[in-house]
Amino acid sequence: MQDxxxxxxxxxxxxxxxxxxxxxxxxxxxxxxxxxxxxxxxILEREWEGEEQALREEWxxxxxxxxxxxxxDRLADAVHERNKELAAKIRSGELxxxxxxxxxxxxxxxxxxxxxxxxxxxx
Amino acid sequence: MTELRELLxxxxxxxLGHAVHVTSLERMSGGASRETWSFVVQDGEGERxxxxxxxxxxAPARSNRTGEIDLLRAAGAAGVPVPVVVWAPEGxxxxxxxxxxxxVEGETIARKILRDEEFAHARTVMAAQCxxxxxxxxxxxxxxxxxxxxxxxxxxxxxxEQHTTxxxxxxxxxxxxxxxxxxxxxxxxxxxxxxxxxxxxxxGNLIVGPDGIRAVIDWEISHIGDPWEDLxxxxxxxxxxxxxxxxxxxxxxEDLYNAYEKESxxxxxxxxxxxxxxxxNVKWGCATLMQTFTHLWGHVKSLELAAIGRRTVETxxxxxxxxG
Lengths: 123, 324
Fold this sequence. Notes:
The complex is a heterodimer of chains A (123) and B (324).
Chain A: H1 7-22, H2 28-66, H3 75-92, H4 99-117
Helix pairs in contact in A: 1-2, 2-3, 2-4
Chain B: H1 2-16, E1 21-27, E2 35-43, E3 46-54, H2 65-77, E4 85-87, E5 98-102, H3 110-115, H4 120-139, H5 155-170, H6 175-186, E6 195-197, E7 206-209, E8 212-216, E9 223-225, H7 228-234, H8 253-264, H9 270-296, H10 303-308, H11 312-323
Antiparallel strand pairs in B: 1-2, 2-3, 3-5, 4-5, 6-9, 7-8
Helix pairs in contact in B: 4-8, 5-6, 5-9, 6-9, 6-11, 7-9, 9-11
Protein backbone atom coordinates (compact mmCIF):
# COMPACT_ATOMS: atom_id res chain seq x y z
CA MET A 1 0.00 0.00 0.00
CA GLN A 2 1.30 3.44 -0.91
CA ASP A 3 1.74 6.43 1.41
CA UNK A 4 -0.27 9.66 1.35
CA UNK A 5 -1.12 11.50 -0.76
CA UNK A 6 -3.39 8.89 -2.37
CA UNK A 7 -3.55 8.62 -6.15
CA UNK A 8 -6.78 10.64 -6.11
CA UNK A 9 -5.17 13.34 -3.97
CA UNK A 10 -2.20 13.60 -6.33
CA UNK A 11 -4.49 13.91 -9.31
CA UNK A 12 -6.35 16.67 -7.55
CA UNK A 13 -3.11 18.48 -6.72
CA UNK A 14 -2.04 18.26 -10.36
CA UNK A 15 -5.37 19.67 -11.52
CA UNK A 16 -5.24 22.53 -9.03
CA UNK A 17 -1.70 23.38 -10.15
CA UNK A 18 -2.97 23.67 -13.72
CA UNK A 19 -5.78 25.96 -12.69
CA UNK A 20 -3.78 28.16 -10.37
CA UNK A 21 -0.35 28.30 -11.96
CA UNK A 22 -0.62 27.41 -15.62
CA UNK A 23 -3.96 28.63 -16.91
CA UNK A 24 -3.47 32.33 -16.04
CA UNK A 25 -0.15 32.32 -17.93
CA UNK A 26 -1.45 30.82 -21.16
CA UNK A 27 -3.56 31.85 -24.13
CA UNK A 28 -4.97 30.31 -27.31
CA UNK A 29 -4.31 26.65 -28.05
CA UNK A 30 -2.04 26.12 -25.03
CA UNK A 31 -4.78 27.37 -22.75
CA UNK A 32 -7.34 25.16 -24.49
CA UNK A 33 -5.08 22.12 -24.09
CA UNK A 34 -4.48 22.91 -20.43
CA UNK A 35 -8.25 22.87 -19.92
CA UNK A 36 -8.35 19.50 -21.68
CA UNK A 37 -5.62 18.30 -19.30
CA UNK A 38 -7.56 19.55 -16.27
CA UNK A 39 -10.65 17.72 -17.46
CA UNK A 40 -8.67 14.50 -17.91
CA UNK A 41 -7.26 14.80 -14.38
CA UNK A 42 -10.76 15.37 -13.00
CA ILE A 43 -12.04 12.26 -14.79
CA LEU A 44 -9.22 10.17 -13.37
CA GLU A 45 -9.80 11.50 -9.86
CA ARG A 46 -13.48 10.50 -10.03
CA GLU A 47 -12.69 7.14 -11.57
CA TRP A 48 -9.97 6.14 -9.14
CA GLU A 49 -12.15 5.93 -6.06
CA GLY A 50 -15.14 4.09 -7.48
CA GLU A 51 -13.68 1.66 -10.01
CA GLU A 52 -13.73 -1.57 -8.01
CA GLN A 53 -17.33 -1.11 -6.92
CA ALA A 54 -18.52 -0.11 -10.39
CA LEU A 55 -16.94 -3.21 -11.93
CA ARG A 56 -18.54 -5.52 -9.37
CA GLU A 57 -21.97 -4.04 -10.07
CA GLU A 58 -21.51 -4.33 -13.81
CA TRP A 59 -20.46 -7.99 -13.46
CA UNK A 60 -23.68 -8.67 -11.52
CA UNK A 61 -25.84 -7.11 -14.23
CA UNK A 62 -24.12 -9.08 -16.98
CA UNK A 63 -24.57 -12.29 -14.97
CA UNK A 64 -28.30 -11.59 -14.75
CA UNK A 65 -28.73 -10.96 -18.48
CA UNK A 66 -26.29 -13.43 -19.99
CA UNK A 67 -26.20 -16.14 -17.34
CA UNK A 68 -23.53 -16.72 -14.72
CA UNK A 69 -19.97 -17.19 -15.88
CA UNK A 70 -16.72 -18.13 -14.29
CA UNK A 71 -14.89 -15.05 -13.15
CA UNK A 72 -11.17 -14.93 -13.98
CA ASP A 73 -8.81 -13.16 -11.60
CA ARG A 74 -8.80 -9.63 -12.86
CA LEU A 75 -12.28 -8.15 -12.65
CA ALA A 76 -11.69 -5.48 -15.30
CA ASP A 77 -10.66 -8.13 -17.84
CA ALA A 78 -13.62 -10.32 -16.94
CA VAL A 79 -16.12 -7.49 -17.42
CA HIS A 80 -14.43 -6.54 -20.67
CA GLU A 81 -14.84 -10.09 -22.06
CA ARG A 82 -18.50 -10.23 -21.07
CA ASN A 83 -19.13 -6.90 -22.76
CA LYS A 84 -17.74 -8.43 -25.96
CA GLU A 85 -20.20 -11.29 -25.50
CA LEU A 86 -23.02 -8.81 -24.93
CA ALA A 87 -22.07 -6.77 -28.02
CA ALA A 88 -21.99 -9.90 -30.20
CA LYS A 89 -25.36 -11.14 -28.93
CA ILE A 90 -26.98 -7.77 -29.53
CA ARG A 91 -25.59 -7.64 -33.05
CA SER A 92 -26.75 -11.15 -33.93
CA GLY A 93 -30.28 -10.38 -32.82
CA GLU A 94 -30.13 -13.03 -30.10
CA LEU A 95 -31.22 -10.48 -27.48
CA UNK A 96 -34.06 -8.95 -29.55
CA UNK A 97 -36.59 -10.83 -27.42
CA UNK A 98 -35.08 -9.29 -24.24
CA UNK A 99 -34.92 -5.75 -25.60
CA UNK A 100 -36.17 -3.90 -22.52
CA UNK A 101 -33.85 -5.80 -20.15
CA UNK A 102 -30.89 -5.15 -22.42
CA UNK A 103 -31.80 -1.47 -22.63
CA UNK A 104 -32.10 -1.26 -18.83
CA UNK A 105 -28.70 -2.92 -18.32
CA UNK A 106 -27.04 -0.58 -20.79
CA UNK A 107 -28.69 2.47 -19.27
CA UNK A 108 -27.18 1.55 -15.90
CA UNK A 109 -23.73 0.86 -17.35
CA UNK A 110 -23.78 4.10 -19.31
CA UNK A 111 -24.94 6.00 -16.24
CA UNK A 112 -21.98 4.66 -14.24
CA UNK A 113 -19.58 5.56 -17.04
CA UNK A 114 -20.92 9.06 -17.53
CA UNK A 115 -20.81 9.87 -13.81
CA UNK A 116 -17.05 9.50 -14.13
CA UNK A 117 -16.50 10.84 -17.65
CA UNK A 118 -18.84 13.85 -17.60
CA UNK A 119 -21.43 14.06 -14.80
CA UNK A 120 -22.80 17.34 -16.17
CA UNK A 121 -24.13 15.60 -19.29
CA UNK A 122 -27.01 14.08 -17.29
CA UNK A 123 -29.99 16.33 -16.59
CA MET B 1 6.06 26.74 -37.17
CA THR B 2 8.99 28.69 -38.70
CA GLU B 3 9.26 25.90 -41.22
CA LEU B 4 5.63 26.30 -42.25
CA ARG B 5 6.03 30.05 -42.52
CA GLU B 6 8.97 29.56 -44.85
CA LEU B 7 7.10 26.99 -46.92
CA LEU B 8 4.17 29.42 -47.26
CA UNK B 9 6.47 32.28 -48.18
CA UNK B 10 8.22 30.26 -50.87
CA UNK B 11 4.96 28.95 -52.28
CA UNK B 12 3.16 32.32 -52.20
CA UNK B 13 6.12 34.09 -53.80
CA UNK B 14 6.15 31.54 -56.59
CA UNK B 15 2.39 31.81 -57.17
CA LEU B 16 2.35 35.62 -57.18
CA GLY B 17 5.51 35.94 -59.26
CA HIS B 18 7.31 38.18 -56.76
CA ALA B 19 8.79 37.97 -53.28
CA VAL B 20 6.31 38.29 -50.41
CA HIS B 21 6.41 38.10 -46.64
CA VAL B 22 4.18 35.81 -44.62
CA THR B 23 3.25 37.15 -41.20
CA SER B 24 0.75 36.51 -38.42
CA LEU B 25 0.87 32.76 -38.93
CA GLU B 26 -1.47 31.32 -36.35
CA ARG B 27 -2.90 27.87 -35.80
CA MET B 28 -6.63 28.15 -35.38
CA SER B 29 -8.08 26.38 -32.37
CA GLY B 30 -10.29 23.29 -32.41
CA GLY B 31 -10.26 20.48 -34.97
CA ALA B 32 -8.33 17.41 -33.91
CA SER B 33 -8.02 15.65 -37.24
CA ARG B 34 -6.84 18.42 -39.59
CA GLU B 35 -4.84 21.62 -39.31
CA THR B 36 -6.19 25.08 -40.07
CA TRP B 37 -3.76 28.00 -40.15
CA SER B 38 -4.53 31.66 -40.66
CA PHE B 39 -1.81 33.89 -42.17
CA VAL B 40 -1.19 37.18 -43.92
CA VAL B 41 0.63 37.64 -47.23
CA GLN B 42 2.34 41.02 -47.44
CA ASP B 43 3.90 42.60 -50.49
CA GLY B 44 4.30 45.99 -52.10
CA GLU B 45 0.60 46.06 -53.04
CA GLY B 46 -0.71 45.47 -49.54
CA GLU B 47 -1.94 42.65 -47.31
CA ARG B 48 -4.13 39.63 -47.86
CA UNK B 49 -5.53 37.32 -45.21
CA UNK B 50 -5.62 33.68 -46.19
CA UNK B 51 -6.34 30.31 -44.63
CA UNK B 52 -4.44 27.05 -45.05
CA UNK B 53 -6.16 23.69 -44.57
CA UNK B 54 -3.81 20.70 -44.48
CA UNK B 55 -3.46 17.18 -43.13
CA UNK B 56 -1.36 16.88 -39.96
CA UNK B 57 2.17 16.20 -41.27
CA UNK B 58 2.88 12.51 -40.83
CA ALA B 59 -0.74 11.37 -40.54
CA PRO B 60 -1.22 8.05 -42.36
CA ALA B 61 -4.65 8.67 -43.92
CA ARG B 62 -4.44 11.33 -46.61
CA SER B 63 -7.61 13.37 -47.12
CA ASN B 64 -9.23 13.78 -50.52
CA ARG B 65 -7.82 17.19 -51.25
CA THR B 66 -8.79 17.69 -54.91
CA GLY B 67 -12.25 16.34 -54.24
CA GLU B 68 -12.81 18.84 -51.47
CA ILE B 69 -11.65 21.68 -53.71
CA ASP B 70 -14.03 20.66 -56.55
CA LEU B 71 -16.80 20.36 -54.02
CA LEU B 72 -16.24 23.89 -52.69
CA ARG B 73 -16.43 25.21 -56.23
CA ALA B 74 -19.59 23.23 -57.11
CA ALA B 75 -21.37 24.20 -53.89
CA GLY B 76 -20.42 27.84 -54.41
CA ALA B 77 -21.91 27.74 -57.89
CA ALA B 78 -25.14 26.32 -56.42
CA GLY B 79 -25.55 29.32 -54.12
CA VAL B 80 -24.03 27.87 -50.96
CA PRO B 81 -21.87 30.41 -49.07
CA VAL B 82 -18.34 28.95 -49.09
CA PRO B 83 -14.76 30.25 -49.03
CA VAL B 84 -13.01 30.63 -52.36
CA VAL B 85 -10.10 28.28 -53.09
CA VAL B 86 -7.12 30.43 -54.02
CA TRP B 87 -4.21 27.97 -54.28
CA ALA B 88 -4.14 24.18 -54.55
CA PRO B 89 -0.57 22.82 -54.52
CA GLU B 90 -0.22 19.36 -56.04
CA GLY B 91 2.22 17.82 -53.58
CA UNK B 92 3.63 18.52 -50.14
CA UNK B 93 4.81 22.06 -50.90
CA UNK B 94 3.06 23.14 -47.71
CA UNK B 95 4.37 20.29 -45.56
CA UNK B 96 1.46 17.92 -46.24
CA UNK B 97 -1.55 17.79 -48.65
CA UNK B 98 -3.62 20.94 -48.34
CA UNK B 99 -5.05 24.04 -50.02
CA UNK B 100 -5.38 27.76 -49.40
CA UNK B 101 -8.63 29.73 -49.28
CA UNK B 102 -9.53 33.37 -48.82
CA UNK B 103 -10.20 34.36 -45.23
CA VAL B 104 -13.87 34.85 -44.43
CA GLU B 105 -14.28 37.20 -41.49
CA GLY B 106 -16.37 35.74 -38.70
CA GLU B 107 -16.48 33.35 -35.78
CA THR B 108 -16.53 29.54 -35.74
CA ILE B 109 -16.20 28.87 -32.03
CA ALA B 110 -19.54 27.51 -30.78
CA ARG B 111 -19.16 28.90 -27.27
CA LYS B 112 -18.92 32.46 -28.61
CA ILE B 113 -21.63 32.10 -31.26
CA LEU B 114 -24.02 30.70 -28.67
CA ARG B 115 -23.28 33.10 -25.82
CA ASP B 116 -21.80 36.42 -26.97
CA GLU B 117 -24.01 39.49 -27.30
CA GLU B 118 -22.42 40.14 -30.71
CA PHE B 119 -24.32 37.14 -32.12
CA ALA B 120 -27.66 37.70 -30.40
CA HIS B 121 -29.37 38.66 -33.65
CA ALA B 122 -27.57 35.93 -35.60
CA ARG B 123 -28.92 33.29 -33.24
CA THR B 124 -32.49 34.29 -34.10
CA VAL B 125 -32.00 33.80 -37.84
CA MET B 126 -29.47 30.98 -38.07
CA ALA B 127 -31.88 28.02 -37.93
CA ALA B 128 -33.77 29.34 -40.96
CA GLN B 129 -30.49 30.15 -42.73
CA CYS B 130 -29.36 26.57 -42.10
CA UNK B 131 -32.57 25.28 -43.66
CA UNK B 132 -32.07 27.35 -46.77
CA UNK B 133 -28.36 26.54 -47.08
CA UNK B 134 -28.90 22.81 -46.56
CA UNK B 135 -31.61 22.80 -49.22
CA UNK B 136 -29.08 24.30 -51.66
CA UNK B 137 -26.36 21.84 -50.66
CA UNK B 138 -28.78 18.99 -51.31
CA UNK B 139 -29.68 20.48 -54.67
CA UNK B 140 -26.00 20.85 -55.75
CA UNK B 141 -25.42 18.92 -58.99
CA UNK B 142 -22.87 16.15 -58.47
CA UNK B 143 -22.25 15.03 -62.07
CA UNK B 144 -18.91 16.87 -62.20
CA UNK B 145 -17.84 15.43 -58.84
CA UNK B 146 -16.94 12.09 -60.35
CA UNK B 147 -15.03 10.86 -57.30
CA UNK B 148 -18.27 10.90 -55.27
CA UNK B 149 -19.90 7.52 -55.61
CA UNK B 150 -23.43 6.84 -54.40
CA UNK B 151 -23.53 3.85 -52.05
CA UNK B 152 -24.19 0.51 -53.75
CA UNK B 153 -27.00 -0.16 -51.29
CA UNK B 154 -29.41 2.41 -49.86
CA UNK B 155 -27.86 5.25 -47.81
CA UNK B 156 -29.58 3.80 -44.73
CA UNK B 157 -28.07 0.34 -45.21
CA UNK B 158 -24.71 1.83 -46.14
CA UNK B 159 -24.48 3.92 -42.98
CA UNK B 160 -25.34 0.91 -40.78
CA GLU B 161 -22.66 -1.21 -42.50
CA GLN B 162 -20.11 1.60 -42.31
CA HIS B 163 -20.44 1.93 -38.55
CA THR B 164 -20.64 -1.79 -37.91
CA THR B 165 -17.30 -2.08 -39.71
CA UNK B 166 -15.86 0.87 -37.78
CA UNK B 167 -16.73 -0.76 -34.46
CA UNK B 168 -15.01 -3.94 -35.62
CA UNK B 169 -11.93 -1.96 -36.63
CA UNK B 170 -11.74 -0.36 -33.19
CA UNK B 171 -12.15 -3.77 -31.56
CA UNK B 172 -13.50 -2.47 -28.23
CA UNK B 173 -16.98 -3.63 -27.20
CA UNK B 174 -19.61 -0.87 -27.20
CA UNK B 175 -22.88 -2.70 -26.61
CA UNK B 176 -24.87 0.55 -26.37
CA UNK B 177 -23.80 1.53 -29.88
CA UNK B 178 -24.52 -2.05 -31.03
CA UNK B 179 -28.03 -1.72 -29.63
CA UNK B 180 -28.48 1.53 -31.54
CA UNK B 181 -27.33 -0.15 -34.77
CA UNK B 182 -29.70 -3.03 -34.10
CA UNK B 183 -32.55 -0.53 -33.62
CA UNK B 184 -31.63 1.14 -36.90
CA UNK B 185 -31.77 -2.22 -38.71
CA UNK B 186 -35.10 -3.17 -37.18
CA UNK B 187 -36.77 0.22 -37.83
CA UNK B 188 -35.85 1.33 -41.37
CA UNK B 189 -37.03 4.84 -42.33
CA UNK B 190 -40.03 5.13 -44.64
CA UNK B 191 -38.66 7.75 -47.00
CA UNK B 192 -35.28 7.96 -48.68
CA UNK B 193 -33.60 10.50 -50.92
CA UNK B 194 -30.15 10.49 -52.49
CA UNK B 195 -28.27 13.79 -52.87
CA UNK B 196 -24.99 15.49 -51.97
CA UNK B 197 -24.65 15.49 -48.19
CA UNK B 198 -22.22 17.78 -46.31
CA UNK B 199 -21.75 15.27 -43.51
CA UNK B 200 -20.52 17.65 -40.79
CA UNK B 201 -22.87 20.62 -40.93
CA UNK B 202 -22.82 22.12 -37.42
CA UNK B 203 -21.38 24.89 -35.22
CA GLY B 204 -17.65 24.70 -35.59
CA ASN B 205 -17.97 24.43 -39.36
CA LEU B 206 -19.99 27.60 -39.88
CA ILE B 207 -18.34 31.00 -40.09
CA VAL B 208 -20.80 33.34 -38.40
CA GLY B 209 -21.05 37.13 -38.28
CA PRO B 210 -23.55 39.38 -36.47
CA ASP B 211 -25.78 38.98 -39.55
CA GLY B 212 -25.66 35.20 -39.42
CA ILE B 213 -23.96 32.47 -41.46
CA ARG B 214 -21.27 33.75 -43.82
CA ALA B 215 -19.66 30.49 -44.98
CA VAL B 216 -19.87 26.74 -44.62
CA ILE B 217 -16.49 25.08 -44.22
CA ASP B 218 -14.93 21.65 -43.62
CA TRP B 219 -16.34 19.55 -46.44
CA GLU B 220 -13.95 16.65 -45.92
CA ILE B 221 -16.60 14.03 -45.18
CA SER B 222 -19.12 15.11 -47.83
CA HIS B 223 -20.61 12.18 -49.68
CA ILE B 224 -23.64 11.05 -51.67
CA GLY B 225 -26.30 9.99 -49.21
CA ASP B 226 -29.63 10.75 -47.65
CA PRO B 227 -30.05 14.50 -47.02
CA TRP B 228 -32.00 13.89 -43.79
CA GLU B 229 -28.60 12.94 -42.40
CA ASP B 230 -27.53 16.62 -42.51
CA LEU B 231 -30.64 17.94 -40.75
CA UNK B 232 -30.38 15.26 -38.07
CA UNK B 233 -26.66 15.94 -37.50
CA UNK B 234 -27.38 19.62 -36.93
CA UNK B 235 -30.03 18.72 -34.32
CA UNK B 236 -27.82 16.21 -32.49
CA UNK B 237 -27.41 17.10 -28.82
CA UNK B 238 -23.62 16.93 -29.01
CA UNK B 239 -23.65 20.02 -31.22
CA UNK B 240 -25.73 22.20 -28.90
CA UNK B 241 -22.70 22.84 -26.66
CA UNK B 242 -24.95 23.24 -23.63
CA UNK B 243 -27.21 25.89 -25.19
CA UNK B 244 -31.01 25.47 -25.22
CA UNK B 245 -32.00 25.38 -28.93
CA UNK B 246 -32.56 21.97 -30.52
CA UNK B 247 -30.91 23.18 -33.71
CA UNK B 248 -27.22 23.63 -32.96
CA UNK B 249 -28.01 25.15 -29.59
CA UNK B 250 -29.30 28.31 -31.29
CA UNK B 251 -32.66 27.55 -32.92
CA UNK B 252 -35.96 25.73 -33.26
CA UNK B 253 -36.63 22.73 -35.44
CA GLU B 254 -39.69 24.35 -37.00
CA ASP B 255 -37.59 27.29 -38.26
CA LEU B 256 -35.09 24.85 -39.75
CA TYR B 257 -37.74 22.61 -41.32
CA ASN B 258 -39.90 25.47 -42.67
CA ALA B 259 -36.96 27.18 -44.34
CA TYR B 260 -35.79 23.86 -45.77
CA GLU B 261 -39.22 23.08 -47.20
CA LYS B 262 -39.57 26.55 -48.66
CA GLU B 263 -36.20 26.48 -50.44
CA SER B 264 -36.29 22.84 -51.55
CA UNK B 265 -39.97 22.26 -52.22
CA UNK B 266 -39.65 18.97 -50.31
CA UNK B 267 -41.68 18.21 -47.16
CA UNK B 268 -39.48 17.26 -44.18
CA UNK B 269 -40.09 13.65 -43.06
CA UNK B 270 -39.81 14.04 -39.29
CA UNK B 271 -39.66 10.29 -38.60
CA UNK B 272 -36.80 9.92 -41.05
CA UNK B 273 -34.96 12.81 -39.37
CA UNK B 274 -35.45 11.02 -36.04
CA UNK B 275 -33.96 7.84 -37.51
CA UNK B 276 -30.97 9.78 -38.80
CA UNK B 277 -30.59 11.42 -35.40
CA UNK B 278 -29.95 7.97 -33.91
CA UNK B 279 -27.41 7.58 -36.73
CA UNK B 280 -25.88 10.94 -35.80
CA ASN B 281 -25.15 9.72 -32.29
CA VAL B 282 -23.66 6.45 -33.53
CA LYS B 283 -21.62 8.42 -36.07
CA TRP B 284 -20.21 10.89 -33.55
CA GLY B 285 -19.65 8.06 -31.05
CA CYS B 286 -17.62 6.14 -33.63
CA ALA B 287 -15.76 9.32 -34.59
CA THR B 288 -14.64 9.84 -30.97
CA LEU B 289 -13.46 6.21 -30.96
CA MET B 290 -11.52 6.64 -34.20
CA GLN B 291 -9.94 9.86 -32.93
CA THR B 292 -8.83 8.36 -29.65
CA PHE B 293 -7.46 5.26 -31.33
CA THR B 294 -5.52 7.42 -33.77
CA HIS B 295 -3.64 8.45 -30.64
CA LEU B 296 -3.60 4.99 -29.00
CA TRP B 297 -2.31 3.31 -32.17
CA GLY B 298 0.52 5.85 -32.23
CA HIS B 299 -0.38 7.63 -35.49
CA VAL B 300 -0.84 11.11 -34.02
CA LYS B 301 0.11 11.70 -30.40
CA SER B 302 -2.16 14.27 -28.79
CA LEU B 303 -3.73 14.86 -25.38
CA GLU B 304 -6.86 16.14 -27.07
CA LEU B 305 -7.26 12.92 -29.08
CA ALA B 306 -6.56 10.81 -26.01
CA ALA B 307 -9.16 12.69 -23.94
CA ILE B 308 -11.91 12.49 -26.56
CA GLY B 309 -12.26 8.75 -26.01
CA ARG B 310 -14.04 9.55 -22.74
CA ARG B 311 -16.74 11.38 -24.69
CA THR B 312 -18.08 8.31 -26.49
CA VAL B 313 -20.31 7.68 -23.49
CA GLU B 314 -22.18 10.95 -24.12
CA THR B 315 -23.40 9.61 -27.45
CA UNK B 316 -24.27 6.29 -25.83
CA UNK B 317 -26.34 8.13 -23.24
CA UNK B 318 -28.16 10.21 -25.86
CA UNK B 319 -28.80 7.28 -28.18
CA UNK B 320 -30.34 5.17 -25.41
CA UNK B 321 -32.64 8.11 -24.63
CA UNK B 322 -33.68 8.29 -28.28
CA UNK B 323 -34.42 4.59 -28.79
CA GLY B 324 -35.73 3.81 -25.29
